[in-house]
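In this supplementary section we document a worked example of the pipeline. Step one takes a protein sequence of length 338 as its only input; no multiple sequence alignment statistics are reported here. Step two produces a three-dimensional model, which step three serialises into structure tokens for compact storage. The input and output of this example are shown verbatim.
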Amino acid sequence: MKQILSVLIILSVFFNSCTTEFDVIDEWKDITVIYCLLNQNDTIHYAKIEKAFLGEADAYEMAKISDSLYYDNITVSLEEYDNDNLTNIFYLEKTTEIPKDTGIFADDNNVLYKTDASLISTRKYRLVVYNPDLDKTVYGETKLINGIEVTSLPPKINIANYEYPYSVEWKSSANARIYNVSVDFHYFEINLTSGDTTFHTVKWNVGTKISSNASSSSENMYVELTPQSFLKTLASNITIKDDVIRVVHKDAIDIIFQVGGADLYTYMEVNGPSFSVIQEKPEFTNIVDGIGLMSSLYDKVFLSNEITDRSVDSVAHSIYTSKLSFEDHTSLYYQAQF
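The serialised model returned by step three reads:
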């Protein structure tokens, strides 16, 4: 599942940045587009490599033809460097194993390039695309994010007191700028008619923080898990049912960090929505002799965190969730888990 996350982010970045507006040109020009986000936790690493839209045909028609998007004859490799010393080369193979949603762009072949190389967090990586037909080399490079140091995460999470939000704290990581923290909340649902028990999860996006720079690994950072936001998230994602009871899982909460590199953050900032009167925005690319993005991701999941008995009671009895049929901590259904 982790490897799919990186692909989804790559595709999201790509499609949000594509445009079918262009000027009619006098002569053909090859422009290579590369999108690749590397995460050492992934078992498979993907790169998306395509052609930019330059031609005299209608842009919408060109977008529907896969030959207008993809190269027939390129070599894609991932070079590994320890400082400036080349230590390994991994060759990526072409794949169409992940389908593309239908839309403006061709969906008959969603061409990606992949490798199952094991990446080392302290190394630098360069993705190299060589086109022998044009004798042209295009590349991008990135350093990886070497983990994350969480400094405050008690064994039991208390999200019962409205006046005191629960704080998750960490130190910034070298080569990283953007940090997203989310929570997966787990519970059981017991059908009173059939007796069937099913497992469910609600995702709560807690917040995103930006470090002051990517070179430091000592900046103190935090997000607050506010009880109101948590309970409102449950209320908006769980349907009221009269024929069930719900039981908070004893290991109710997973805390998930998703961390992005400095260039990914810059790219998102440049290509995000503009609220300025000046609508023309600068372009950002870190691809040499091409356009696109090469950057890094890192994810860390803190599994199976218990919540306090008072927190279980808040889920059962709060003004936001009291109609969701959750049992409190005194329930035999809840106690049976221990």
